[in-house]
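Entry:
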Amino acid sequence: MRWKMLTGSLLIVATVWAGSFASATYIPVQIENDGLTSVKFNLCENAVREALTWVPVRHLSGLRNVVLHNHTDWHRGLAGDSVIYLRCLDDLAELKSVLIHEIGHIVDINLARSNQRLNYFSEISWLNDNLAVADDTGFVSGYAATDAFEDFAETYAYYLLHGDKFRTLMTASSITKRKYDFMEYSIFAGTEYSLENKTDPLTSGSNLARVEFSYDVTRLKYQR
């Protein structure tokens, strides 16, 4: 499907932090003119700006454009080498989750798979990009188990948005722990995240049975 003529563009400034430092990065957000009102675009643009502040700045080095659209028959998110196509969802929390997942694909394309050492992640659960190893445990979601690319993006989003649950989940699986450790040390430079509600008994009681497992990480609730 061909994209129609773009009618405008905005330049958003996102203060992106990792560890104890902060800096600014400029990500052009282009608006596609088929059915997307300026009011709805502004809501989604602000959500995108906020979510970008959650991501380490070096993870955005390969991202050039985030294109917001309103096609309900298209994927909620789609990432290429340097662009993310994002449906302007009514649920802004879900929109942010989808963006984080798609940024995971950008990181996978531009950081992980360009470095042989970082290819270790796919070897944890995959014989190749589409064929899982005999032991298919250790996935953070059902979608993660579909192929190595979605495994990386779902694990990336789960690490950033559901760190407390991830740390609980990894106590029951050595494979999940290897993926958590990979994200912590090879992708997030030792930074861990805790975005869940601090009053949730899960985060204080470490009750594995209450970890919410979903087919799709981006549909899990989180608090920020």
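The chain has seven helices and five strands.
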